[in-house]
Amino acid sequence: MKLSGELVQWNDERGFGFIAGDDGVRYFVHITSIARIVNRPRAGDRVTFTSSKDREGRLQAMMVAIAGAIPVRHVKSCNAACRRKRDR
């Protein structure tokens, strides 16, 4: 079941944070559970996710998608030929 909420805390150096679910529950989130996006996550981002429990029974967010974020695959990369053309 998909849940939604807001990323209320994010530690970019350590790659984890917490989501306040719209259901009133707080979820741990790790960077590896967030879909690859162009920009880093930040507090205030609206998210959708699924939940599970870790080995110790704590709630964690999985398959997290940040609303409005641009997926990495949609960013046009610039190969060597592109860079030569751009630098002229």
UniProtKB/TrEMBL annotation:
<dbReference type="InterPro" id="IPR002059">
    <property type="entry name" value="CSP_DNA-bd"/>
</dbReference>
<dbReference type="InterPro" id="IPR052069">
    <property type="entry name" value="Ca-reg_mRNA-binding_domain"/>
</dbReference>
<feature type="domain" description="CSD">
    <location>
        <begin position="2"/>
        <end position="66"/>
    </location>
</feature>
<dbReference type="GO" id="GO:0003730">
    <property type="term" value="F:mRNA 3'-UTR binding"/>
</dbReference>
<dbReference type="InterPro" id="IPR012340">
    <property type="entry name" value="NA-bd_OB-fold"/>
</dbReference>
<dbReference type="GO" id="GO:0005829">
    <property type="term" value="C:cytosol"/>
</dbReference>
<dbReference type="InterPro" id="IPR011129">
    <property type="entry name" value="CSD"/>
</dbReference>
<dbReference type="GO" id="GO:0043488">
    <property type="term" value="P:regulation of mRNA stability"/>
</dbReference>
<keyword id="KW-0597">Phosphoprotein</keyword>
<dbReference type="Pfam" id="PF00313">
    <property type="entry name" value="CSD"/>
</dbReference>
<protein>
    <submittedName>
        <fullName>Cold shock domain-containing protein</fullName>
    </submittedName>
</protein>
